[in-house]
Amino acid sequence: MLTPPAALEALLFAAGGPLSKKRLAELLGISGDQLGTASEALGRSLAGRGLALVESESDLELRTAPDAAGIVQKLREDELSRDLGKGSLETLAVIAYQEGATRGEIDWVRGVNSSAAVRTLLTRGLIEGKEDERDKRRMRYALTTEALAHLGIGRADDLPRFSELRSAAQEIAQNEAPQETVSEAGQ
Reduced to 3 states, what is the DSSP secondary structure of residue 125? Predict the structure, then answer.
C-alpha cells in the first residue's frame, strides 16, 4: 500500500492538472491536516528533482521544477515549430465537428490512440480540457478561440459542411450508445 505522499503524487500525476485539496483528501481518505502533512513530505521528496509541488490556497498540482524551465522550453519550442501533422489535424477535426469530444471518442473515430495528438493540441493552446459533465473521471476537449483564429473562422459552425457532418456524428453516437451501455454493464 502506498504512503499518503506517494498516493498524493500518483493522483496529481494522473490528473495532469490541479486538484482541489478537498477532493484529494476525499480520494485519499484522510483529513485536511493529514493532506497538509503528506503534501509537505511530497514537496521535500521532490526537492532537487525535475518536478515540483505547486500549492495554492485551494489546489495542489505537480509541475516541472523551475530549474527545468530551460530544457522544457526547448521541448515546447521544438513541438511548436513543427507542423501539426495528420494525426493532430484529424483530432482537431473530430473535436471541432463533434463540438467537443473525450479522448476515447477521438480514439474511436480515428481508430488509433490519440494521446500524442491531444497533447500536441493542448500544448499549442488549440484545445482545452474540461471535466466531462456525463462522467467526471474524464476530460472533454473543446476548441479554444486560438484554434478558431488558426482555422480562420469565428465559430465552429462556420466550418465546411458543419451541419451535415455534425448530424452524421450525432446519429452514429446515438446508434453506438446502447452498445456502450451493455459493454459497461458487463465490466
Answer: coil
Identify the residue whose cell numbers are 484554434: 147
Strand ranges (E), 12-72: 19-20, 51-55, 59-64
What does the pLDDT read at residue 41? 96
Joined together, the cell numbers standing for residue 119 give: 497533447
Residue 156 included in any domain: yes
Q: Which domain holds residue 105?
A: 82-186
Residue 72 lies in a domain: no
Q: What is the pLDDT of residues 143-175, one digit of tens each?
A: 888 888 777 777 888 888 888 887 877 776 676
- Evaluated on CA atoms 24, 29, 30, 32, the torsion sign reads positive
Domain total for the chain?
Answer: 2
CA torsion through residues 148, 151, 153, 156, sign: negative
Residues 20, 58 contacting (CB under 8 angstroms):
yes
Cα(53)–Cα(62) distance, integer angstroms: 5
pLDDT tens, position by position, 17-76: 889 999 999 999 999 999 999 999 999 999 999 998 988 888 898 988 888 888 888 876
59-69: b (≥16 Cβ within 10 Å) or e: bbebeeeeeee
Q: Distance between CA 83 and CA 129 in Å, rounded?
A: 22
